[in-house]
From TrEMBL:
The entry's keywords: Calvin cycle, Carbohydrate metabolism, Cobalt, Isomerase, Manganese, Metal-binding, Zinc
PANTHER family tied to this protein: RIBULOSE-5-PHOSPHATE-3-EPIMERASE (PTHR11749)
Biological processes per GO annotation: pentose catabolic process; pentose-phosphate shunt; reductive pentose-phosphate cycle
Keyword Zinc in annotation: yes
GO cellular component: cytoplasm
Pathway(s) served: Carbohydrate degradation
Designated name of the protein: Ribulose-phosphate 3-epimerase
């Protein structure tokens, strides 16, 4: 039985009340805090640097999952590790030396993961499975919250699930399969059925007045998949 985790993206939170928004969503049942870093270079938007991560750290009893949409990656990955990140993921297009960047994140004591845009091939996984704790499949093009789920991501999730199961059956360990973009109560079951175990949701959760109602509804949908 797969463990399912819900990871609200604070990109859609009220930035003027970020600490409270983090603790509120954890009280509402979040498992992970998803933290979107955009640099106005790799993606056409600008969000939060390591100081924000350091600032919210005391407000989060949950792991902080830093999604780096930046180029270059290495210096920022190190800065986020220092700022209290638990998981750091990056896009292969952002790094000249993917294996080195993964090593650097692990050496800093964090879990490491690779992120796949809708048009990025999974072949980037071929030689680095041993260094991965997470694979993140984007179901939107990165840069903004509130976009619609791209349906062909489902096939990619299935393929990533096969790769993970094959690898862990042979070598042991655990690799989480996260999906990010357009995940909502009405499609989370489909995403889970395709093989995902970790679900990022920004606007679906922070766009509603009662976070617990949304997270409970998501868990009810996930329970249907588990049954
Ligand atoms: C998009 C970000 C996502 C985003 C998801 O580039 O990586 O994490 O916040 O937001 P929703 O759930 O609204 O699509
Ligand atoms: Zn993200």
């Amino acid at each position: 039985m797969r463990t399912f985790r819900i990871a609200p993206s604070i990109l859609s939170a009220d930035f003027a009340r970020l600490g409270q928004e983090v603790s509120d969503v954890i009280a509402a049942g979040a498992d992970i805090i998803h933290f979107d870093v955009m640099d106005n270079h790799y993606v056409p938007n600008l969000t939060m640097g390591p100081m924000f991560c350091e600032a919210i750290r005391p407000h989060s009893s949950a792991p902080i999952d830093v999604h780096l949409m930046v180029k270059p990656v290495d210096a920022l990955a190190a800065a986020f590790a220092k700022a209290g990140a638990d998981i750091i993921t990056f896009h292969p297009e952002g790094s000249e030396h993917i294996d080195r960047t993964l090593g650097l994140i692990k050496d800093a004591g964090c879990k490491a993961g690779l992120v796949f845009n809708p048009a990025t091939p999974l072949s980037y996984l071929d030689h680095v499975m041993d260094k991965l704790d997470m694979i993140l499949i984007m179901s939107v093009n990165p840069g903004f919250g509130g976009q619609s789920f791209i349906p062909h991501a489902l096939e990619k999730i299935r393929q990533a699930r096969l790769r993970i199961d094959e690898y862990t059956a042979k070598h042991g360990g655990e690799i989480w399969l996260e999906v990010d973009g357009g995940v909502k109560v009405d499609n989370i079951a489909q995403v889970a059925a395709a093989g995902a175990d970790t679900f990022v949701a920004g606007s679906a959760i922070y766009g509603q007045p009662d976070y617990k109602t949304v997270i409970d509804a998501m868990r009810a949908e996930l329970a249907r998949v588990q049954a």
